[in-house]
Design brief:
The protein is an alpha+beta fold and about 240 residues long. Helices cover about 45% and strands about 15% of the residues. It has helices spanning about 15-25, 30-40, 90-95, 105-115, 125-130, 135-160, 165-170, 175-180, 190-200, and strands spanning about 5-10, 55, 60-65, 70-80, 80-90, 120. The chain has a 6-stranded mixed beta sheet with strand order 2-3-4-5-1-6. Helix 1 crosses helix 2, helix 2 crosses helix 6 and helix 7 crosses helix 8 (about 175-180).
């Protein structure tokens, strides 16, 4: 792990991003798990790029999960390889509630960044408490895998110098399909499609299936022979 993830906390003790996440956990557990998995991956520098993260100006970055609510978390970098998550919001939810006009989110996030006398809470502590819930843990791990697939496909495509449209033409599919495959919300991955894309990008697909818990009835390679102890005498 290269970076430490922390939550912004004001001098009064408020924690905007945690308040947002707590509300999201109730309204959309899937988006909540996806954002938590995304923030966890920001610990590694390789994830500091689209589709997981992008700069939005003034030293502020955005982690976006294009799900039902288009949930986002804004963050900035601080000394000591720290990433401070400062606020979250859902654009679709706001549109449904009738909110209009230009949002001052980025300005607010910039103000948070510029406040020198603030306290931060450790993201790992919050994540650890959420992982006590088995349902969340399962969603978190599944969302993390989706982030990994999306990031890997996008990185390989960029290394090959191809746009989504160019890759689609080489694979024989649509740009929309490539865009879906590079989205962490997509769960309809086809093994044959992934292999076609990997072939074009000079990569391979590896699938590993492992049992989660030991089987109570281990398979027997060969049934035990039923021996007859009687001895036959010839005349």
């Amino acid at each position: 792990m290269e970076f430490i993830i922390e939550f912004y906390e004001s001098l009064s003790g408020g924690c905007p991003v945690e308040d947002f996440l707590e509300g999201l956990k109730k309204s959309d557990p899937g988006d909540f798990a996806a954002l938590m998995a995304g923030m966890a991956r920001l610990r590694s520098r390789q994830y500091h790029s689209p589709p997981l993260s992008k700069p939005i100006g003034d030293g502020i970055f955005e982690l976006r999960h294009v799900g039902r609510l288009n949930s986002r978390v804004l963050y900035f970098f601080a000394k000591g390889k720290r990433i401070i998550c400062c606020m979250g919001f859902g654009t679709k939810q706001e549109r449904l509630q009738g909110k209009t006009g230009r949002s001052p989110r980025r300005e607010n996030a910039t103000g948070m960044r510029d406040l020198a006398m603030t306290r931060k809470t450790n993201f790992d502590r919050y994540l650890g408490s959420q992982l006590q819930d088995p349902a969340f843990k399962e969603r978190f791990e599944r969302a993390g895998e989706a982030w990994d697939v999306a990031m890997k496909l996008a990185a390989l495509r960029k290394e090959a110098g191809l746009s989504q449209k160019e890759l689609a033409q080489k694979v024989g599919t649509s740009q929309q399909q490539i865009s879906r495959l590079e989205s962490p919300t997509y769960e309809g991955h086809s093994l044959s499609m992934l292999r076609r894309i990997a072939g074009v990008l000079g990569a391979t697909v590896h699938v590993d299936i492992q049992r989660i818990t030991p089987s109570r009835n281990p398979a027997v390679a060969e049934p035990a022979a039923d021996y007859d102890n009687r001895v036959s005498h010839s005349n």
